[in-house]
Amino acid sequence: MRVWESSIGKKLVMAVTGLIWVGYLISHVLANLMVFSGPDRINAYSAFLHGTGPALWIPRAVLIVAIVLHIVAAIQLTGQSQAARPVGYARRDPQVSTFASRTIRWGGVVILVFLVFHLLHFTVGTVHPDFVEGNPYHNVVAGFQNPWVVLFYVVAMAVLGLHLYHGLWSSRRTLGVAPVSRRPMQRPVALAVAALVWAGFTIIPLAVIAGVLR
After folding, report:
1. 188, 186, 197, 187: which is closest to 164 by C-alpha?
2. Of the residues 49, 141, 150, 176, which has the fewest C-beta atoms closer than 10 A?
C-alpha cells in the first residue's frame, strides 16, 4: 500500500499495466490482419479461441484488472498533480514534450469511450447492424459499411497511436529499461510499435469502405 500511495508507485503500476496492454494490442492487431487472408482463416482462429472455453477468461481477467488499475492510477496521479499546483502556469513553453504527451489524458478518455463501443460493436454485437456470432469476417465487413463508424475508428486509432507512442516511451523510462538519452525526442522503439498498431488497425476499416474487403 505504501508503494501504491506514492506517485512513483502509481507510475510503476501504470507502466506495467500499460505494457500488458501493449502486448495484447500487438497480438490483437496481428490476429485482425488475418482478415486479408479471407474468411476461413480468421473465422477458424476465432473458433479456436472460443473453443478454449473458460480458459479464455484468464487473459481477459488480466486485461480487465490491468486497465482498471491503469485508469485509477492515472486519475489519482492527475489529482495529486493538480493538488500540488492548483494554479496553472501563467505561461508554459514546452521544451522536450511532444503533442502525444500533452494530450495523453484526453487521449485516454477517447480510448476508453472507443473500447466500450468496440466491445459492443464486435464482441457483444448490440450496436452492430448485422452481427453473426462466430463469423468475425462477416462482422468486420458489415460493421464498417457505415462511413461514420469508419471515421470514428480511424480517429480513435490515431489517438491510440499517440497514446502508445508516449506511453511506451515513458513506461520504459519509469521501469529503468531505457537509459537517459541525449536525444530525448528520438524514440525509435516507441515510434515503431505505435506505428505498427496504428497502421494495422486503421487499414482494416479503410479496406472495407474502399471495397477491398467484401
Report:
1. 197
2. 176
